[in-house]
Amino acid sequence: MSASIIDRLNHICRIFAGRPGQIALAVQSKIDPDIAVSVNSQLSVPSASVVKAAIACAAADHLDLTETRSVRDLEETFYCSILQAFDPSDRISLKALIGLMIIVSDNPATTAILDAVGLDKVNAWLSEKGLNDTNLAVGFSDDALGTPLRANRTTAHDCLRLLRLIDTVPDYGFIKHMLANNLRNERIPKRLPDAASIAHKTGSLNGLCHDIAIIESPDAAYYLVVLADELPEDEDFQPEIARLSAEIYDLMSG
Questions:
Q1: Would you list the domain boundaries of the chain?
Q2: Nearest CA to 33 among 68, 56, 6, 73?
């Protein structure tokens, strides 16, 4: 039975990865880790905001998350930020800033966490945890957004390892909870049943559309990584990820 599932998974994933662009996929069952398929898993692509999940883990290992920061001292941005809804005199804990970084992918919150933990410690954490093809070369301040952010790289193989760490290391349990409350749900979660819990992180740049997820329901439990770069101009790839996710869910839930 597992061989049949693997064959069907492999077929679905290879057809999907054959679309125009640079596409990498990884799927692995939590119940039976031998049920696993990957396509282009070592392909290096810009990580975009997917790497924020790793930043959160490094911060959990190195920081006192009860420490606070004043909103007025956080980096200003030209772009929208949920922090602009706060009073400048408000103080926000590092743990809450991680929540904003994960749940709404807020860039000034990310910058505050990176200022606290440091790029070097994040990269050391990546190396220590075996995410050897993931790096953090630049942060998420306004001047790093867009093309410069493409210097941050990752692979589907590393993203799968990251998901397993978040899922199994007790100290990262709060991060998994935050990922399960992500407000950007047009990709992997879009067409999954309400009974499913999807702890996931998206990443977006021009021509790039990522989502990595831990999916759990009464019928299925698995990890799914979808990384897509160099997509055709003006293509909305979100519905394509949603359709793939629904196909994989149907297969994994038997």
A1: 2-252
A2: 6
C-alpha pair distances (Å), 179 with each of 7, 54, 140, 147, 154: 30, 12, 19, 26, 19
Q: pLDDT digit string (tens) for 201-216?
A: 999 999 999 999 999 9
Return the number of other C-beta atoms located less than 10 Å from residue 205's C-beta: 18
**Which CATH superfamily, name and number, covers 2-252?**
DD-peptidase/beta-lactamase superfamily (3.40.710.10)
pTM exceeding 0.85: yes
Mean pLDDT calculated for residue range 80-109: 96
| pLDDT for the residue numbered 80 | 87
Q: Rounded CA gap, 186 and 66, in Å?
A: 32
Q: Across-strand partners of 147? A: none
